[in-house]
Please model this.
Amino acid sequence: MAVLAGIAAFGGLLAALVGAHGLSQARRVSETGVRVQALVKRRPGEVCEESAPPRPLLQFVTEDDRVMEVVCPVPPTRRKPLDDGDDVLVSYDPADPRSVVVHGREHVGSDRVFIAGGALVLLLSVTALVVAIAAR
Model:
C-alpha cells in the first residue's frame, strides 16, 4: 500500500506542477506579451460538420514584420465561435511567437483543475502513506 500511495503522491505532485506551470505561462504571456490583432483562418481541407470543430489558425504580424500562423490555443464554442475571417486580440511572447494567449478566452480553469486535483491526490496519498506506516 505504501508503494501505491507513493506513486499516487508523485502523480498528484506532477499534476499540480503542470497546472501551475500552465497558469503561470498564460498569465506571463497575457501580461508581458505583445498585443496584436489576429485573423482567424479555417484550416485547409477542414470539414465543418464535425461534432467538435477543430481549432482554427490565427494569423498575425509580429513586431519584426514576420507573418505567423499558429493553431489557436482554445477551441471555438457555441457562445464564442471563431469563424473564418474574424479578428481576435492575442498576446504573443516575443521570444517565441508561437506561444499565444487569446484575450477573453484564456481557459485557465483547466489549469486550476489540474492544480486542485493534483493537490487532492497528493493529500490523499500522503494520508494513506501515513496510515500505512502507522499500521506497521
Observations:
- The first strand starts at residue 34 and ends at 41.
- The beta strands are 34-41, 57-61, 67-71, 87-93, 96-102.
